[in-house]
Amino acid sequence: MDGIDMQGVGSSPHRLEIMEKVTGSAEYIADLSRPNMLHAAITQSTVAHAKILGYDISDAMAVPGVVCVLTGEDFPDGRMGAFIKDEHAIAKDKIRYFGEPVAVVAAETEAIAREAAKRVIVKYEELPAILSPEEGLAEGAAIIHEDLDSYIKVFPAISSGNMASYTELNEGDLEAGFAEADLVVEGTYDTAPQAHLAIEPCGALADIDKQGRVTLWSANQSVFRVQANVCESLMMPMGKLRCLTPRVGGGFGNKMEPHIQPLVVRMTQATKRPVKMILNREEDFECVRARHPFKVRCKTGVKKDGTITAREVEVLLDCGAFGDDSPGVLGYSLLMSLGPYRIPNSKASGKLVYTNKLRFGAFRGFGNPQVAFAGETQLDQIAEKLGMDPLDLRQKNLIQPGDVWFGGGQVASNGLQECVDKARAASDWDNRKSRTAPKGKRRGTGVALSAHISGLLGTGAIIRVFEDGSVALNTGAVDIGQGSDTVLSQMCAEALKIPLEKVSLASPDTDGSPYNWGTTASRVTYTTGRAVVGAAAEVEKQLKEHAAQMLECSEMDLELRPGGIVGVSGSDKEVSFHQISLRAHWAAGGPIVGHHTWVFNQPTIDPKRAVCSGIPFPQVGVFSFGCLIVDTLTDEASGKTEVAEAWSAVDVGKAINPSSVEGQIVGGFVQGMGFALTEEMVWDGPKLANPTLLDYKVPTTLDTPYNIHSIIVEAAEPDGPFGAKGAGEIGLVAVPAAIANAIADAIGGHVHSLPMKPEKVLNKMLEIEDAT
Amino acid sequence: MLTSMTKTDFQKPKTVEEAVTLLKEAGDDARPISGGATLVALMNARLVQPSRLVSLSAIDELTQCTYQSDGSVRIGAMRRHRQTAFESNLKAAHQVVSGAASQIANPPVRNMGTIGGSISFADPAADYPPSLVAANAEIEIAGPEGRRRIPAEEFFLGWYETALEPGEIVTAVILPPVSESSVGQYEKLCRIAGDFALASVAVTIDFNASNTVTSLRLAVGGCGGGPIRVEAAEQALIGTKLELDAVVDAAELVVAELDPIDDVRGSAEYRLKVVPRLLQRAFNNLVETREPAQ
What we know:
The complex is a heterodimer. In chain A, 27% of the residues lie in helices and 25% in strands.
């Protein structure tokens, strides 16, 4: 079997589900239906902040075909939230943002449900709307969550008034660090809210059986988080809800925590019929979640030779109406705010403030791209003042193998130097000034470095050996389109030395899958991969126990051979998985099942090194690194900037499936480019002004450079599966900063605000022209 | 009655007269449909729910583009943007129109959308309106009272409003004769490929043998309710050789006439700042790419 391509680790087989996706037969939530199914639609609030005085649902109920209308009065008082339990399934008593669901209508068709939903009347007593963190913190501001003090919080939250959370990290002696500096640079940077815009909007379908047990399918990133959130908000025992997943059309963080799943579950309970609801694009924009707008104050001290002595970072985050993942985003952004550099004296602190906007939450990068934009552009500003090459300045301060992270967390693998070297060489960085621009354009080249984690929380895997010797893998990890089904199967095949086709993968199911916190935090390859490797080792052990008895030898003398065979070392005596499994099923020992579960448990903070408060995660993850260089062209007439070429070197430990890793690098780049240049959710008073693809613009293929060079670096993570660590987010983190630095190289100054749309760039160009 | 559940009557007449009659008898809720690029999007968004759709796609005369003996070009209302973008009959200054067509949205929309449909919707940020004003085009309209022709400038009344009366449809766009020495240029600024214009400028110019401007028309898009033509700026440039100073002065006259608003594409302030720069570039490109006079 040695000559057979097993499609194991390091190869790039097609996605397991590729045929159904390219032929359009893959089933997403909108494709599902059940007999006798109802369709549901939401009524959205038309004010941002108000007390609910009452409802009139008679007009809605009068529409022929309407079966049920539910309002906040029909929902239990349970509250959900990943960090702060502050959110009901639907608005109850109060409205906290414009567009918030206030009622749900179920009807025989979607058109009827949508029509009736417009006829639900809600009586409001309006309250002053808080539309920015500054307004939220102001003296005498209207309070969005009056009961914040009594809410359950899963971390040592520091909160009061409209401040949901305050977090602070300190290392070294900040004052002494700045005193030591020859140059101190300070600036403020802001970033705009970005919509996730997964190609598939959110949706859910629930059905109820005769015992009142509910089955729920939904667009999600974790069936287990769906189960937890629905059960908390509807005050249901977890055993009364089974969560499943169809194919998922992208997530980026949007589908990790709840959207409309609790509404659909409550409606199926009320009607005893299957109920389906699919948000349209506008609703998906208005009432799911988005990337946090950040205001960052960053101050860095350096010596003349470029050695960084101190950094202080202060962030202000708009939380939106509910906590969701925001405390995590705040804490994580602070943890990453020094970048991958040795900075001995530092302080990072931030406030998260409730406002009357939709909740801001997890989005690929999780707060890291925003602080990287500030920190990495500030490094270029320092390099300019010192007359140093920007990459040389970074090189001088690079975190080195063996160094710990800000806060004291261990960094076991570090391929950053190789990323820098390879991106520098591939982009011909040292000769960048010789590149010319077409007439009417200015060319710039920029660099930014990044680090990101993969890890967090609990995961498991179960591997069973079928009677024919093939295996069933069950992890509970949802493949949201990034390819984890294929990657986990490849790891299982590799560990057991069987061809990929001998691994069948179970779809996530809270009834039958081991717990998986979710497809988020760049974690599935690393954490679930470790569980798969652990479960495979358990299966190998059991196979060998059987084989030892069948071949009458010691287990110590046995080895796995390619193709599903256990053989005696140095001998041609062997037995197949098929033969072993038949024996196990029918004669002795029992069917072979291996499992492994674990929780990421490496501490983030070393209390001997760092003084911290309000930290949301005690144990975050292992580190991936990246170096990104971009070439941009800025139009002299308008300030509009396009990326001409990009070189993205990323340390992923081990590329289990190299073409999927390249897909992550390129996809992350393009999404980061949208964040950098065009994407921006804009509010007109309390209402989102651009909740459509006509008005909210993501880059198209024509706006994307043809050459985005993916450079894979593999610094093996010692405890990673085959050395692997995460690749899902790292490719996005440095993009806005690198583009900002390229634009500054082109026009002679930095834009401090995302997106760097033509107007901001032109204004900066004119400002520089006026000054010279 | 649920409007979203109403049935739409669909008709496909063979002549303009038949189409006009079908529209008239169905009243205000009837809509003509040509390529559907705009109307279907509006229907999907439930902004328009026509009781009757009268398709213009089977009317032969609307699908033709003809070069007429007097040198004018007649573009049938059903001509797709892609056809206009590649139209071999459009030469010299007429290229302001083919240039605009080639920059509308994306290939699927250009294959679908028509010039008649586009101008009838009259989006102030669309590409044809300023280009047709710069080209001094006339719009041919058919209605219950017969046919009439009006200059493009009088057709676009501002903010999705046109001179079309109820029951009327656009049948053709007529571009006047142009001399071989004339040139046309359409410059568009948009956020991403395929977006509507944040701002656009359209210019047509003719020169004499010594490269002096003998005639010039310019119009700006995306900076008000419709295309904005600035005759004072045109006059200021006629008789010049488009020297930088002359262009800068004329651009100031243009800016004075703009009436932009803040919207999600860009601020009014930015539009005022960027239009003169786009104009300068359009003139520069024209001067540079123009073959030297004999």
